[in-house]
Amino acid sequence: MTQRRVRVAVVFGGRSSEHAISCVSAGSVLAHLDRDRFDVLPIGITREGAWVLGTSDPSDLAIRDRQLPAVDGAGDALVLPADPTRGGLVRLDVGRAGEALDGVDVVFPVLHGAFGEDGTVQGLLELAGIPYVGAGVFASAAGMDKEFTRKLLRADGLHVTDAVVLRPGTATLTSEQRDRLGLPAFVKPARGGSSVGITRVDDWAELATAVATAHAADPKVLVEAGVCGREIECGVLEFPDGRVEASLPAEIRLVAGGPAGWYDFDAKYLDDACEFDIPAKLDDDVSARLQAMAVAAFRALDCQGLARVDFFLGAEGTLTVNEVNTLPGFTPISMYPRMWAVTGLEYSTLLSTLVDTALARGTGLR
Ligand SMILES: Nc1ncnc2c1ncn2[C@@H]1O[C@H](COP(=O)(O)OP(=O)(O)O)[C@@H](O)[C@H]1O
Ligand SMILES: [Mg+2]
Fold first, then answer.
1. CA nearest 114: which of 242, 240, 16, 209?
2. Residue-wise DSSP of 134-156
């Protein structure tokens, strides 16, 4: 007798500035989920927040001629009631309103940024009683917020760069704070991603504009001391038996003369301005130290399932954690799946592991 396939809802799009990148990530996930094991249900969330039955054609979710994909909302309208007795997603269409969609065994939230990677969708899934891939409410919220990521990492002895938090109502730094941070500085939305809203400031005269740019994305802004170093990333993965392992690290380098001089949105996704060393060319001891720190960062935030931990490696060997991504990119060029591929876990196996780990955990307190 053949086993029933596991029903995986892949949720993508969403209300954050990373809507399009989420769609591209979902396109890759849809293309690589093992169809012998999984029935896949694509669920799009529009930029306005409407849930609809989405496209299952990965090619509809690719970047073409610099055009970014989006969830257009044309599919059947759905809602996920925060009520475990309803058995999952329910239709909203006239004539079929209230009809339950066939049971969903597990959700893969391929969502980046606010209202997706930040614990909100995870909270809804907890209430609905549906297992899901990745971190729970707490770690999702902690990893999304660069202020609290830093605090938790520092509390566990991991090195982070100096920063000042500008809360709503404060738009500038005191002269003491400027002296303390020095230049260059990086001005960021506290809960952003894909480099959206980030400015590198090389002269304090540029600060006001940079803060305004970050404010457009988030009322809370961070100004960070610039770190001079190589950008190295490391994937962390939890297996169904609870083992947590780090991938081989990888390095991102801007192609000489890269447009902005740092890893901004266009360099990341549009301009082919980055070169990747997967794995990174590192001494074995640096690589081992970095992997241990990546797992320590995963633990510091109480992550589950997966995370990509991003570092700066200084010339003297100092490792600074830049950020912890609890739902890292899964696009065809994204580092997380590529790092696992060179570590020996190819894309489909990686996805199966993530789903199996989510099913092994179930829902409830973690
Ligand atoms: N403190 C810093 N020092 C040097 N470069 C930085 C610093 N902060 C950010 N950057 C550059 O900006 C990029 C995006 O910043 P990051 O904090 O990773 O934001 P996001 O969450 O949007 O990816 C980094 O990959 C790096 O190139
Ligand atoms: Mg980043």
1. 16
2. S--HHHHHHHH-HHHHHHHHHHT
Residue 291 alpha carbon to ligand 2 centre in Å: 18
**Lookup result for tokens 């092994």:** 360
Supply 23's token pair.
Answer: 């769609």
Q: Is 325 in the pocket of ligand 1 (CB under 6 A)?
A: no
How far apart, in whole angstroms, are the C-alpha atoms of residue 345 and residue 353?
9
Q: Please tell me the pTM assigned to this model.
A: 0.95
Handedness of CA 229, 214, 134, 272 (dihedral sign): negative
| Site of tokens 């992550």 | 303
The CA-atom distances, in angstroms, between 161 and each of 219, 223, 292 are 21, 10, 19
Report how far ligand 1's centroid is from the alpha carbon of 210 (Å).
14
Tell me which range, 15-29, 61-75, 345-359, is most confidently predicted by mean pLDDT. 345-359
- Say if residues 192 and 211 touch (Cβ distance below 8 Å): no
Q: Is 161 in the pocket of ligand 1 (CB under 6 A)?
A: yes
3-class secondary structure, 214:
helix
Question: Per-residue pLDDT tens for 130-179?
Answer: 999 999 999 999 999 999 999 999 999 999 999 999 999 999 999 999 99
Cα 263 to ligand 1 centroid, rounded to whole Å = 7
